[in-house]
Amino acid sequence: MLFHTTEKRDWAQDYIDQGIIPGYSNLGTYVGVGALKNSDVLTAVSHVASNVARFPIVVLDDAKNETKKIKSVDYLLNKHPNDMLSAYHWRFIMTVNAILTGDGFTRIVRDPRTNDPLELQYYPTSQTYIDDSDVTNIKYEFTPVNRKGHDRTIVCPAEDVIHFMFFTYDGIHGRSPLLSLGDEIGLQDDGIKTLRRFFRSGFKGGILKAKGKLSKEARRKTREEFEFAQSNGNAGSPIVTDDTFDYSPIEVDTNVLQLINSNNYSTSQIAKALHIPAYKLAVNSPNQSIKQLNEDFITSDLPYYFKPIASDIEMKMLTDRQRHNYHVEFDTRKETGMKMDDVQKGVTNNVITPNEGRVLMGMVKSDDKDLDRFQSTLNTVFMDKKEEYQQSAKGGENHDDKRFGNTSNDDANSDESVN
């Protein structure tokens, strides 16, 4: 009898090698949860995750560009994915994990009869292993650990797993952008440590000159004794010496400290790698209104995160038939939707209907059927009634109607007889 065995890699060692979890060999890397100790990284990650979490995910009709209600999809993605998390926090932690570790994983629990999604179960990266031994049949293995220490591995096909990854080189594994920021974050940390050492010293650094020639050991002992004598002094306390020593403080170049404190290079690099504007990290403030800056961020930067998420959800949550007619998007119209004046111009020029204008503004479509019809500028007559109205107007030119300035021959003759 032959037994077929697949290669099992050590997922923990893989994550240590990639810097996702700390190991003795890579304590200097800046990925994983440890990266959140850096305030710029924390601000950038939380800003992106909160924006991904706050905008609703909608299914749109390709032909009509109207929202299509698929109850199971809308309920799980925007309201209640599982018993542990709200929709906001589910998307938030999925985004945070995808940025910090490269991947965010959620298992789709389906109805065994209809195959409709019933629940979205989130799993941490440390409890997930991607079996890519056969790239044509990717498997995800989830190994949750319970309180008693026992675990049970759940194997799922790729179509049953929502996988957030914003950068990938093989379509299977994600890569954290923080892996490219080791030098920048390290430079920032070194600058902060330099400032801390400077202020911790109490401004007591200086040069101690002793009379005579001292050996190496004598210099060390002299320094230690001098430091011990001054150890109880606070910043600004007088330094006491005898006539055998000559002490002169070191003048610190404040320009160096100013350079360390005002160095925005690392912050700008973090903003660039995470696709957020530098002003979000207080680097500079462009001469634009807050509304303009926010709209530009949503339309220009957030698609880097929105598109991969929407595409993966579309592949996993919709059926093949639904994908031929619908697509998934983040609905940002309440902040980036068409303005009232532009909608009015579109309706007046017969480009859009009033209901289409409401949708483009982010409002709910009205049930009034008349708002689905194009309107004309001729006293707001409907397009399909305009010709009929004009014909009736032309037919009335031969009739006496003082409203249009028409008079009959009798009236004209009567006027002449009077004259």
Written account of the structure:
With 419 residues, this protein is α+β, with helices and mostly antiparallel strands. The protein has helices at residues 11-18, 39-54, 71-78, 87-100, 182-200, 216-229, 254-261, 265-273, 290-301, 303-317, 320-323, 333-336, 340-348, 354-360, 383-395, 409-418, and strands at 57-61, 104-110, 117-123, 128-131, 139-142, 154-157, 161-164, 206-210, 245-249, 326-330. The strands form 4 sheets. The protein has a 3-stranded antiparallel sheet. Strand 4 and strand 5 form a beta hairpin. Helix 2 packs across helix 4 (87-100) and helix 5 (182-200) packs antiparallel against helix 8 (265-273). The radius of gyration is 36 Å and the shape is elongated. InterPro entries: Phage/GTA_portal, Portal_HK97.
Features:
419 residues; alpha+beta; three-stranded antiparallel sheet; 2 domains; 41% helix; disordered C terminus; 10 strands; 12% strand; Phage portal protein; Portal_HK97; elongated
